[in-house]
Amino acid sequence: MKMKKISCGKKEIILGQRTLIMGILNVTPDSFSDGGKYNNLDAAMKQAEKLIADGADIIDIGGESTRPGHTQITVEEEISRVVPIVEKISKELNTIISIDTYKHEVAKEAVKAGADIINDIWGLQYDKGEMAKFVKECNLPLIAMHNQNDEIYNKDIMLVLREFFEKTYKIADEYGIDRNKIILDPGLGFGKNSEQNIEVLSRLEELNDMGPILLGASKKRFIGKLLNDLPFDERVEGTVATTVIGIQKGVDIVRVHNVLENKRASLVADGIYRKRG
Question: What residue stretches are annotated with the Pterin-binding domain (predicted)?
Answer without folding.
Answer: 19-267
